[in-house]
Design a protein that fits this description.
about 350 residues; alpha/beta; Arc Repressor Mutant, subunit A; 3 domains; 5-stranded mixed beta sheet; 3-stranded antiparallel beta sheet; globular; transcription regulation; transcription cis-regulatory region binding; LysR_subst-bd; DNA-binding transcription factor activity; DNA-binding
Length: about 350
């Protein structure tokens, strides 16, 4: 960065995040006049206007919108350099969907902290739990280094890999009329509402991807809430829900929910990791975390079969980020083996 760029970029990013100069100044501990001066210097450095000041706040110009992800990336790079020079542990900003953060993600992070990724692979982790739209926006804005999501059928861009698969289960309350059935047919299911947390959530995505052929005509009931709210309502008998098994592991074990046995099984859903390249000094930690995540694969046999099915294409010259990552970091040896038991209390 050029001389004086850091405070100016910090001021700019703060205004973008807080929506106004006053709120940004308060967050940074600046006087408003000082923050305004930093913004004017930034615009002078760049030769363009990056903000439009208004009575209700500040709005990014087109130039400002283009600058924002690069400003965040520059500030993050400087922070990484400072941490490396001081000998601090690298920082890793991770995002995960709530359905993955319910049980699986804490186990993976705890295993990494307890040395499952090898020596000197610890990191100061910042975990963001959010829905798909929020995570994708944050990743695109360089606010996250690594994101774990369930595959929605759209191929991820950039560095990414399938780290595992999860069963797709249809769940209901133990008192639900269908819970007493040994096998449930689509015709029986369609008499009840399908509960989904919000537009674009994992439960809605699974119905869209895997349930439409089996469950054509299903009535979706949006509850506009979190996964926890969805599980509570399902547990109280207000409908059925299609979810990844990881999202309901505890509830199934404790009998708060039961799995409805379908005459036609629904396909598993893959767990996809997407990351920003060139994360030195955190690159080693990132790939150690990916290896740990692969060892925590809920369905290693499905992942092995999916990988084997792709091998002929790779032999013909098709190279994917997942293959390159596995070849370089030895993840193929780790995939499919759960070699740790992380304490549940670490989140």
């Amino acid at each position: 960065m050029w001389p004086g760029a850091r405070p100016r970029l910090r001021a700019f990013v703060a205004v973008a995040e807080h929506g106004g100069i006053s709120a940004a100044a308060q967050a940074l501990g600046y006087a408003q006049s000082s923050l305004s001066a930093q913004l004017k210097r930034l615009e002078g450095d760049l030769g363009v206007s990056v903000l439009v000041r208004a009575g209700t706040g500040a709005v990014l110009t087109e130039a400002g919108a283009r600058l924002l992800p690069h400003a965040r990336e520059a500030l993050e790079l400087e922070e990484r350099m400072r941490r490396a020079a001081r000998g601090d542990r690298p920082r890793l900003r991770i995002g995960a969907q709530e359905s993955l953060a319910h049980v699986w993600m804490p186990d993976v992070l705890a295993a990494l902290e307890y040395g499952a990724g090898g020596t000197d692979t610890g990191a100061d982790v910042e975990l963001t739990v959010a829905n798909r739209k929020t995570l994708e926006q944050a990743f695109g804005a360089a606010e996250l280094d690594l994101v774990f999501q369930y595959d929605n059928g759209i191929r991820a861009l950039g560095a990414h890999a399938v780290v595992g698969h999860d069963r797709t289960v249809l769940v209901a309350a133990p008192s639900h009329p269908l819970a007493r059935q040994e096998m449930v047919t689509p015709e029986q299911i369609l008499q009840y509402d399908f509960l989904v947390a919000e537009p674009g959530c994992t439960s809605e995505m699974l119905v869209d991807r895997f349930g439409r052929d089996l469950l054509a005509g299903a009535r979706l009931a949006m509850i506009q809430g979190s996964l926890s709210a969805l599980l509570r309502l399902t547990g109280h008998g207000h409908g059925v829900s299609l979810l990844p098994e990881l999202a309901v592991t505890r509830e199934l074990q404790e009998g708060e929910l039961v799995e409805l046995r379908l005459a036609e099984r629904i396909r598993p859903v893959s767990i996809v990791a997407q990351w920003r390249p060139r994360l030195e000094p955190g690159e080693r930690t990132l790939h150690a975390l990916l290896d740990v995540a692969r060892r925590a694969d809920p369905l290693p046999e499905v992942t092995r079969a999916a990988r084997a099915a792709r091998l002929p294409h790779r032999a013909a010259g098709e190279r994917t980020h997942e293959h390159n990552d596995a070849r370089q970091h030895g993840s193929s040896r780790a995939a499919g083996h759960r070699s740790f038991r992380a304490p549940r209390s670490v989140g």
